[in-house]
Specification:
The complex is a heterodimer.
Chain A (H helix, E strand, L loop, with lengths): L13 E2 L10 H13 L10 H20 L8 E4 L2 H16 L5 E4 L9 H10 L2 E4 L10 H7 L4 E7 L11 H10 L3 E5 L11 H4 L3 E5 L10 E5 L1 H4 L12 E4 L5 E3 L13 H17 L1 H20 L4 E3 L8 E6 L4 H10 L2 E2 L1 E3 L7 H4 L4 E5 L6 H11 L4 H4 L3
Parallel strand pairs in A: 1-13, 3-4, 3-5, 5-6, 6-7
Antiparallel strand pairs in A: 2-8, 7-8, 9-10, 11-12, 12-15, 14-15
Helix pairs in contact in A: 1-9, 2-9, 3-4, 10-13
Chain B lengths: L2 H13 L13 E6 L6 E9 L2 E10 L2 H14 L4 H15 L25 H21 L1
Antiparallel strand pairs in B: 1-2, 2-3
Helix pairs in contact in B: 1-2, 2-4, 3-4
Classes of the chains: A alpha/beta, B alpha+beta.
């Protein structure tokens, strides 16, 4: 649906790499263009009309995002460069000070590198321990597996809302309710969820929630760090400079601004914020529940069609989000991706930055399809036709 | 060379690679080669006998082009002197980079002469050859 809104879809291509990044609708591109052509100025600075307009637009997006994820206060919305930036600020700006030696961090082997490496790095320097919640036969985690992994040393659980290879939607509300009874903080990486389903941080109860703009039809280089005010207020800035200080003098006396500005040093990505705002408005107009429902139905159609082919292994048949990981039997995933590229069908091959998932999956590399609402049934049919080629294992060469 | 024949040679070297599997022998120089732009990963072992390459082995998870190219490389360079091998490697790299090269110098590796038409596969074809180049340089500095 809504294919006409996306200039990239004027090309004769089937784009299935939406887990990596999504195409941008005209309204997002126009909003950015308008900022650069009609009201370029810095924000939080000038006493002139242009800058004031920038301020209003910028802060209005904060309000839009707050409502989009149902946060309680707009000060709980920090603009970052993306989900990776957000997770690093949480780990090195908060948990670096919050955790003590031998404290335990719970993650899973199906997490993206951005929700593993910062914790590993912290464990190296602070002598805290990273533990993995076991995955079930569908590579999912359950409340039960989380409970069995918690010890009296567990201080934080950090999980993706939807994982980027398996595409399972984590039962976060249940996990968070349980964790909070034990005083455990829960961090959620929402990168794969935010553009595909309704996210309600208040209902879920997440302590921190991060996501990237470019995976929700917005621009690259912009993201959001949400945190409950009392926790967010304890994050030490990783960046110091203009925009975040209230006053300082030559003796070193310095006072920083309050949230959200304390965590937004330097000239922010204004065009990115404005583009993100346009993406939020656009998604609101369509409706996140409608998007989710459409993608789930399309996934069912895709999995059904793929299952009918005798040469395809699907690794996540029972997942709830529009991500499908598969391999053509006896064909290296990259060869499959390059073969599909010849048919102008774009899928991702590799480990998808989830490099330790292979220990569970038994296979190092897969092809990944990430559906978006602009994919249609015809896209799936084209893929199936290309994969039905009897000479596929020969046609991977030239 | 006929396109179908090239494809057959590549597929044969992919499905039944030569010199695949590492040996437990510390006389071999061992290198790990990662393709930074994709997911090819090769381990290469080289046994030198003074100025000669006595044996080359490889192991890894890689695409059809990368695996077959490693197989062909091991065949073409085993038993060659370092000087001869370097000349073959140089000509192969020139071919992939679409520069002038001597067709008679690269043997079966000629099957990749059109790979530059698929720029995203150039590095796949080159990875094993970069490995042997690195190995030769390491051997030279050891001397």
């Amino acid at each position: 649906m809504k294919r006409e809104d996306f200039p990239m879809l004027k090309q004769d291509i089937v784009y299935f790499d939406n887990g990596a990044t999504t195409f941008k609708p005209y309204c997002v591109i126009e909003a950015i263009k308008k900022y650069y052509t009609e009201y370029t100025a810095n924000c939080h600075r000038g006493d002139y009309k242009l800058s004031l307009k920038v301020d209003n637009e910028y802060e209005h997006v904060r309000e839009l995002v707050k409502e989009f994820i149902n946060a309680k206060r707009s000060e709980e919305i920090i603009f970052t460069s993306g989900a990776t930036d957000g997770l690093n600020r949480i780990v090195f700006g908060f948990f670096k000070y919050y955790l003590n030696q031998d404290d335990e961090i719970l993650i899973a082997k199906s997490e993206h590198a951005s929700n593993i490496l910062p914790w590993m790095e912290l464990s190296r320097t602070k002598k805290v321990i990273v533990k993995y919640i076991p995955l079930d036969e569908d590579y999912k985690i359950t409340l039960k597996s989380v409970i069995s992994s918690i010890t009296n040393k567990t201080k934080v659980i950090s999980l993706a809302h939807i994982t980027n290879v398996i595409g399972d939607v984590r039962p976060l509300k249940e996990i968070i309710d349980y964790a909070h009874k034990l005083g455990i903080i829960v961090v959620v990486d929402g990168a794969q969820a935010i553009g595909h389903m309704k996210v309600d941080v208040s209902e879920m109860g997440a302590d921190f929630y991060v996501f990237s703009g470019h995976k929700m039809y917005g621009p690259t280089g912009i993201g959001v760090l949400y945190g409950k005010y009392n926790l967010l207020d304890k994050i030490e800035p990783l960046c110091y400079g203009g925009g975040m200080n209230a006053t300082f003098d030559s003796t070193g006396k310095v006072q920083y601004k309050e949230l959200p500005y304390a965590l937004e040093a330097g000239t922010p990505n204004i065009a990115g914020v404005i583009g993100l705002g346009a993406a939020v408005r656009y998604l609101n107009d369509i409706g996140m529940n409608k998007i989710h429902e459409y993608e789930i139905n399309l996934r069912k159609y895709l999995v059904n069609k793929l299952s009918n082919l005798s040469n395809i292994d699907i690794y996540n048949k029972n997942s709830e989000a529009g991500i499908v990981a598969f391999n053509v039997q006896d064909v290296f995933s990259q060869d499959t991706a390059i073969y599909l590229d010849k048919h102008n069908i774009y899928v991702r091959a590799g480990n998808h930055c989830a490099k330790i998932l292979k220990e569970e999956l038994g296979v190092k590399n897969t092809c990944r399809i990430g559906l978006a609402f602009y994919n249609n049934y015809e896209d799936v049919d084209k893929l199936i036709k290309a994969l039905s080629n009897e000479n596929l294992s020969r046609d991977i060469i030239f | 060379m006929d396109q179908n024949l090239k494809r057959d040679i590549i597929l044969d070297n992919y499905n039944n690679p030569n010199n695949k599997g590492l040996v437990d022998d510390n006389k071999y120089i061992k290198l790990n080669m990662n393709n930074t732009s994709c997911i090819d990963e090769l381990d290469i072992q080289i046994l030198f006998d003074d100025k000669k390459i006595k044996d080359i082995r490889f192991e890894g998870e890689a695409c059809a082009i990368c695996t077959s190219s490693a197989s062909i490389m091991t065949k073409e360079l085993s038993g060659k002197t370092i000087k001869e091998a370097t000349e073959i490697v140089n000509n192969f790299e020139k071919m992939i980079d679409e520069k002038d090269y001597d067709k008679n110098k690269i043997g079966e590796a000629i099957v990749y002469e059109d790979i530059s038409k698929q720029p995203n596969r150039k590095k796949c074809a080159l990875l094993a050859w970069w490995g042997i180049e690195k190995g030769i340089n390491e051997h030279k500095t050891q001397d």
